[in-house]
Amino acid sequence: MTETRPSGRTSRRALASVAAAALIAGGALGSGYLPSATPAYAQALPKSPIEAPEHPPGSFAGIVNKVKPGVVSVKVKLDDSASSGDDEDGPNQGRNLQNVPPQLREFFRRFGQNGPGGMQPQHQGPRGAVGSGFIISADGYVVTNNHVVDHAKTVQVTLDDGRTLDAKVIGKDAKTDVALLKITEGSNFPYVQFGKAAPQVGDWVVAIGNPFGLGGTVTAGIVSARGRDIGAGPYDDFLQIDAPINKGNSGGPTFNVNGEVVGMNTAIASPSGGSVGLAFAIPSETVQAVVDQLRTDGKVARGYLGVQIQPVTQDIAEGLGLDKAKGALVDHAENGTPAAKAGLKAGDVIEKVNGDTVDSARELSRKIAGMKPGAKVELSYLRGGKSDTATVTLGTMPTDGTKMASRDEDSGNGQPRLGLQLAPAGDVGLSDQGVAVVQVDPDGPAAAKGIEAGDVILDVGGQSVSRPADVAAQIRAAESNGRKAVLMRVKSGKGQTRFVAVSLSKNAG
Fold it and tell me: What is the pLDDT of residue 77?
């Protein structure tokens, strides 16, 4: 079984194993569970980045010596609200994975305190945990993962020079798994800086952190991929790196060869819990944007459109007459929201935000959530095959977040007939508008798309329908226009609406 898990918290069982190994090798342990490190006096880091060599370095020592003083180990005592599972085979393992696609549920079993993605992960110790972090200012602000410090009763950070200092949680954001701490004693701390540009696939990177409680561990690798969606949260946009990352590395930085932070290590994919070269880091631009708000306000306020959206699949693109399956399809705009006030309607396909192309519904969510409430945004969209623009003043996202439809369409080819028995919705008491689905042929194309008896078809091909004849007429119109599929907006018995694209053939009707 392959697992993706937060790399942050190390179990007491793992720590005990490390301690035992140290005892065997050295004969005795000091007052802690790890041998004491040789003190190294940290100095403020240069404000200008290191000049990158033209070719990959023969040694990373120069980079490490510059930035290592700014990396810390994080030790947490958990409050009483934390559960007490203490190993990866405990009773909580594998629970609450319903939101993960079935084919990925085994892959994305995670553990760590309240890790991202809405799953119930394992605590790495009944009342304590360890992770990593990095200092971003001389006055002692520290960045780490939310899942490292979630449910923290007390937090301490250990610097590279051996000092252990108390810290407090300034703010945290579960949706991006970012948290901001502040060291409560001392000053003039060494600190690191965020990168000014995103890394490219193939760039060298250096990770420093606290795997299994072994603080100050340095590993190196390359950026393997960008833009990874691993099912951790609504705004996934991970860097994938192959630098060895393990439990306890969560919250630690990934540096480029200029000594700038380009990512924060967060999760690993592994069959055993150890590194297999698949690690995921939150891009520094995301971390910095969240940290700036946490530092100022102690919380994150996100931009809000007020639209329910879904992906543009290939068959939906065909139903809309689009060349490519790109953009975000508006299921509907909530009444009174910025999107509704700007005139956005069901069936619109949002293609650009402020001139930047939107490839998917998830990308639209990330772009809007990354903007502040009150910002003016220009949206480019398609309606009925014609391009248009709307200027929207973003609102503030409600606490439950931007609603995004989760509609994974099946890919059935369909047959000439839809396989539906229809009636005016008013005649069967289901609704004041639309056409009710009375019966569904289980072998028909509509059934393959998830349409069920009790659903109400609100419009077909962008046109409202009230009689079965209207549905048939719009299907014929779509066919005569050369469409390979017809797009229908359907309201379920639970009151939720979604777009469904059903394939057509010559004698559909």
Answer: 92
pTM for the model stands at 0.61
Residue 16 sits at φ, ψ, to 5 deg, of -65, -40
CATH number at residue 439: 2.30.42.10
Which pLDDT tens digit goes with each residue over 212-243?
A: 889 899 999 999 999 888 777 777 889 999 99
How do 152-158 and 141-144 pair as beta strands? unpaired
Instruction: Look at residue 85 in the predicted model and tell me its pLDDT.
Output: 38
Give residue 73's identity as a one-letter amino acid code.
S
Name the phi and psi angles at 362, rounded to 5. -65, -40
Which DSSP symbol is given to 408?
A: -
The whole domain housing 482 covers: 420-503
Do 390 and 444 lie in one domain? The reply is: no
Annotated active-site residue in 250, 275, 380, 503: 250
Residue 84, CA distances (Å) to 79, 90, 91, 148, 151 in order: 11, 10, 10, 15, 12
Is-catalytic flag, 250?
Answer: yes
Kindly state the helix (H) or strand (E) to which residue 207 belongs, with its residue range: strand 204-209
Count up the domains in the chain and report the number. Answer: 3
Distance between CA atoms of 302 and 370, rounded to whole angstroms?
6
Q: Do 219 and 76 reside in the same domain of the chain?
A: yes
What 8-state DSSP symbol labels residue 368?
A: H
Q: Are residues 85 and 128 in the same domain?
A: yes
Q: What local confidence, expressed as pLDDT, does residue 224 receive?
A: 93
Alpha-carbon span 120 to 105, nearest angstrom: 13
Owner of token pair 């005592």: 77
CA dist., res. 85 & res. 450, Å (int): 39
The answer to whether 94 and 1 have CB atoms below 8 angstroms apart is: no
150, 177, 236, 455: the catalytic one is 177
Q: How far apart are CA 129 and CA 6, in angstroms?
A: 12
Active-site hit among 73, 123, 132, 147: 147
Q: Where are the alpha helices (DSSP H) in 46-138?
A: 61-67
Residues of the chain with pLDDT under 70: 1-57, 81-127, 271-273, 399-417, 427-429, 443, 504-509
Are 377 and 368 a contacting pair, CB within 8 Å? yes
- Whether 59 is catalytic: no
Confidence at residue 470, expressed as pLDDT on a 0 to 100 scale = 85
Q: Are residues 150 and 166 in the same domain?
A: yes
110 plus 227 within the same structural domain: yes
* Cβ-contact 287, 178 below 8 angstroms: yes
Neighbour tally for 231: CB within 10 Å: 20
DSSP summary character for residue 194? B
**Which residues are bridge partners to 133 per DSSP?**
72
Using CB atoms within 10 Å of the CB of residue 110, give its burial: 0 to 12 exposed, 13 to 18 middle, 19+ buried. buried
